[in-house]
Structure formats: structure tokens, C-alpha cells
Write a structure and sequence with these properties.
Elements lengths: L10 E9 L1 E3 L12 E8 L3 E6 L8 E8 L2 E15 L2 E8 L4 H25 L1
Antiparallel strand pairs: 1-3, 2-5, 3-4, 4-7, 5-6, 6-7
Length: about 120
């Protein structure tokens, strides 16, 4: 059985966002300047699991804003892997250049999401 390399737990987190900057690691490719529609599937303190319609290269960098209770933060993530699955691409992204403020922001985002999820589950019971 493959050993799980994940240090931090992934949290299911479904959210649609637009990636406004895609820096391609392969200098021979021509970048597509149009925004990329990204669906965040899960989040952890180290990165995101996403789905999108564009093939992402390992080492590419994506930039977009995450929002938590009206507070927006620009985040930069590196593509660690990407594969085609079910008509779209799934990818693992790792946060880059994390500051203490961004880590605290992510902590609040994850905790707020878990609180909202618990409220919805409690209402359904």
C-alpha cells in the first residue's frame, strides 16, 4: 500500500473561482491570456485540489484571490501534478510564499468552512 505523504488533512471545499494569472513553466509554450475557471475540490494548509478545463504543466504558477468573510487574499500556487480525468483536468496545487498573515487567513477560511458545513449537517438532522 502506498504511504500517504500528506502532512495536513484535506478539507472538502467546493468553490468556483477564476485564475487571473497563469505563469507557464515551459518557456516554449505560448501562454493563453484568458482566465482559467477553476473549481476547488479540497483545501489544506499546504495546497488545493482543483478541477479545470485547461491542461496545467508541472511547475506552472497560478494566481487568484481567495475570500473569507469579506477578506480577500491573493495566493500563488505551484502545479505539483495534473492529469486528464472525465473530460477535464484535475490537479494538485501547492501554496507558495506563505506569510504568517496568509496562514492565519487560511486557518480562518478552513475553520469558517467547517463551521458552516457543521451547521448545514445539524439542520439536516
Amino acid at each position: 500500500m502506498e504511504e500517504n505523504k500528506r502532512i495536513r488533512q484535506r478539507i472538502d471545499y467546493r468553490n468556483h473561482i477564476l485564475c487571473y494569472k497563469h505563469i507557464i513553466s515551459n518557456k516554449e509554450e505560448t501562454p493563453d491570456p484568458s482566465p482559467i475557471r477553476v473549481i476547488i475540490e479540497d483545501i489544506s494548509y499546504s495546497g488545493l485540489g482543483v478541477r479545470c478545463t485547461r491542461d496545467l504543466g508541472i511547475g506552472d504558477v497560478l494566481m487568484f484571490n481567495l475570500e473569507n468573510a469579506g477578506d480577500k487574499r491573493e495566493v500563488m500556487l505551484e502545479v505539483m501534478w495534473c492529469r486528464y480525468s472525465g473530460g477535464e483536468y484535475v490537479a494538485g496545487l501547492k501554496f507558495m510564499n506563505l506569510t504568517k498573515e496568509t496562514i492565519l487567513f487560511l486557518d480562518g477560511l478552513i475553520k469558517n468552512h467547517l463551521r458552516q458545513k457543521k451547521k448545514l449537517m445539524d439542520k439536516g438532522s
